Automatic annotation (TrEMBL):
UniProt KW Cytoplasm keyword: no
Compartments, record wording: Cell membrane
Lineage: superkingdom: Bacteria
Natural source organism: Nocardioides deserti
Taxonomy of the source species: Bacteria, Bacillati, Actinomycetota, Actinomycetes, Propionibacteriales
Transmembrane segments: 35-57, 77-98, 110-129, 135-153, 174-193, 205-226, 264-288, 300-319, 331-349, 355-379, 400-417, 423-441
Name of protein: MFS transporter
Length: 458
């Protein structure tokens, strides 16, 4: 076809053709943050912190109880209560941070800043020894809140670097990349903890070094998205008078008032509150369950988590492909049915039965990354342009590593029964309620309400 003079004139056309290539480059850079923060989520929050904090607190316990802020607590329930407290703090802080982020182009800087602050707090866990378990409580609180804050900015960036039709794929690949990175470091830490005598280390020192390595990993690999992502200008921000903090409070108030105009997004958030709390509590308490209830060594639990990580890579990618064929909502619902079967099976695993424990870990790996990755991309379809960070701040008040209802229920059931079996089974309530609420979400209406493009499959 013959080109016209206008075709040959430099203009916005060639620049527009470069945009898909720029998006792909940014998506590849964005994947690295999942690679970075998964080290903390697996090695620290998922495996080592809970059992180690319990062990240190038990050394300081009087009558099988420790005192924290005037409360008498069982050391075994302490990790669940720490997670609950960090989530309550995040529930207040994250929406304000989201409002700030939506008014600035510097989302990648905020992502990196909170990631590095969280990594610094995570590094302090290395110094938790003997009876200073309170230092561990404070350090994990800060690290976990910063983990959630950084995730708000990370997921808001997802909306800016991907179109609606490719979001399930990009989100799923990010989760798969994260499981690969978290699994790689977990494999190294598995060797260090399991063979600590070979390296001339006590088990406690091996655990502390492993938690420190996760903090260094988190901080170091965050440099890649910070350097390679672009700053995108904010879009469609309401005009509110005052300084940045005053304007952010003003925008937050506007968003809270307007949430009733987006009932589908609100319904999904409530559904997500339930089923994600169940997922996060299983992740956060699985190591405690494996060690304290089933009697496995720390190295065995680390190895099982490594299995979960490896299986989760394929699980996340498979769920992403299934969503492209059947729609994200249907695939998430199938995942919740599998979660119900998992917590039911956990109730009946015999003490010390390694093969059933490994099979349970493999089942968790299949659905873990897939349900979380699709929940993130599915919710993004209901977010109005220009309010990505703010909406994801509400989302992350209920998100990974910050479950509070599930952790609270788990801790209370253990407190009253002195057994982790009924505590883990009680989480089935969260999957059932979350699934029933998700069934009420009208996907097409939510996309239309937000003014977003309708994907080919919903």
């Amino acid at each position: 076809m013959t080109q016209t003079p206008s075709d040959q004139t430099p203009g916005p056309g060639p620049i527009a053709h470069l945009e898909p290539l720029n998006r792909v480059r940014e998506q590849r850079a964005w994947y690295w943050y999942d690679w970075a923060n998964s080290a903390f989520a697996t090695t620290v929050a998922g495996v080592l912190f809970g059992p180690y904090l319990i062990a240190v607190a038990e050394e300081d316990a009087v009558g099988d109880r420790v005192s924290l802020l005037g409360l008498s607590l069982a050391p075994g329930s302490l990790p669940a209560y720490v997670i609950t407290a960090s989530t309550l703090i995040a529930a207040v802080l994250l929406p304000l941070l989201g409002a700030v982020a939506d008014r600035t182009a510097r989302k990648k800087d905020l992502l990196a800043g909170f990631a590095w602050a969280g990594a610094a707090a995570g590094a302090v866990l290395f110094f938790v020894t003997e009876d200073n378990w309170q230092l561990g409580v404070a350090a994990f609180l800060v690290a976990n809140v910063c983990f959630g804050a950084a995730a708000v900015f990370n997921d808001a960036i997802l909306v800016q670097i991907s179109d609606e039709h490719e979001r399930d794929r990009v989100s799923s690949r990010g989760w798969a990349f994260g499981y690969a990175g978290g699994g790689l470091l977990l494999a190294v830490n598995f060797v260090v903890v399991s063979a600590h005598d070979t390296f001339g280390l006590s088990e406690g020192m091996a655990v502390r070094l492993s938690m420190l390595s996760a903090a260094v990993w988190w901080a170091g690999f965050t440099l890649i998205p910070w350097r390679r992502l672009r700053n995108h200008p904010p879009m469609d921000v309401e005009h509110v008078e005052g300084g940045v903090v005053q304007r952010s409070f003003g925008q937050l108030w506007v968003t809270l008032r307007e949430l009733r105009n987006y009932p589908v997004a609100l319904t999904f958030l409530v559904a997500y509150l339930f089923f994600n709390d169940g997922i996060q509590t299983v992740i956060g308490q699985a190591a405690v369950y494996g060690e304290k209830e089933l009697g496995f060594e720390t190295g065995t639990v680390l190895g099982t988590y490594l299995l979960v990580q490896l299986v989760a890579i394929g699980g996340a990618l498979s769920f992403g492909r299934a969503a492209g064929r059947y729609g994200a909502k249907r695939v998430i619902l199938v995942g919740l049915v599998i979660w119900c079967l998992i917590v039911t099976a956990a109730l009946f695993i015999p003490d010390g039965a390694l093969v059933p424990f490994l099979l349970l870990g493999a089942a968790i790996g299949v659905v873990l990354g897939g349900t979380q990755a699709l929940a993130r991309s599915y919710f993004s379809l209901f977010v109005p342009r220009g309010k990505e960070a703010e909406y994801f701040s509400f989302y992350h008040a209920m998100e990974r590593g910050t479950s509070w209802l599930g952790a609270l229920v788990f801790g209370l059931v253990y407190q009253f029964t002195d057994s982790y079996r009924p505590a883990i089974f009680a989480l089935i309530l969260f999957f059932v309620v979350g699934g029933l609420l998700l069934m009420r979400v009208d996907t097409a209406k939510g996309i239309r309400d937000a003014g977003n493009e309708m994907p080919a499959v919903v």
